Amino acid sequence: MKKQSKFKLQSLTDIKIFLLFLLDNIRYPIDYTTLTKIISENVDEVTFDYEACLRELADAEHLLFDEIDGERFYMISDSGRMIAAELYDRLDEDFRESSIKSAAKYISLSKSNATISSKIIELPDRRFEVTMGAKDKHGKLFSLSITVNSRDQAEKMISSFESNPDALHRGILFCVTGKLEFLP
């Protein structure tokens, strides 16, 4: 669903910031087809300007680009992340939020090469603290600690998390934002 608002991307610079913003939030390589779907959910018209901006960002090494079996893949580079982070506020806050909602269904820890960690610590009162988290090469994505009454309950939580870390990640995002788009 396209957002009905007064905010429009006014320049090629705005389009570039928007593209970097999306790719920074996705955090791993995404195919051009999927990226175009996300873009089209947020703008009135996908023009050739978007493709030209992707090409320019890749040429400037702000995006990493690869082509596999005829499909193009894009990912933000460290330099793109650093430069664009200073410019994200040029985009309307509601527009950014709408864009993240569209991208949410594509966010995946498993695709991002994130590493997960978990541990159980027995507390002095014989309860158990369960800590679960994920990080990628840029740092911590999330960390959650919860205290439960039994080791069995703690081990079940760890097992569930380790078998499907994306579910916990999306659940946390849903809880802190209230946005249903993060639910699997």
- The counted number of beta strands is 6
Give the helix level as a range of percent: 40-55%
**Straight-line distance between termini:** 19 Å
Helical region count? 7
Topology:
Elements: H1 12-26, E1 30-31, H2 32-40, H3 48-59, E2 63-68, E3 71-76, H4 78-85, H5 93-104, E4 115-122, E5 128-136, E6 139-148, H6 151-163, H7 165-177
Antiparallel strand pairs: 1-3, 2-3, 4-5, 5-6
Helix pairs in contact: 1-3, 1-4, 1-5, 6-7
Structural features, described:
With 184 residues, the protein is of the alpha+beta class. Helix content is 45%, strand content 22%. The protein has helices spanning 12-26, 32-40, 48-59, 78-85, 93-104, 151-163, 165-177, and strands at 30-31, 63-68, 71-76, 115-122, 128-136, 139-148. The strands form 2 sheets. Strands 1-3-2 form a 3-stranded antiparallel sheet.
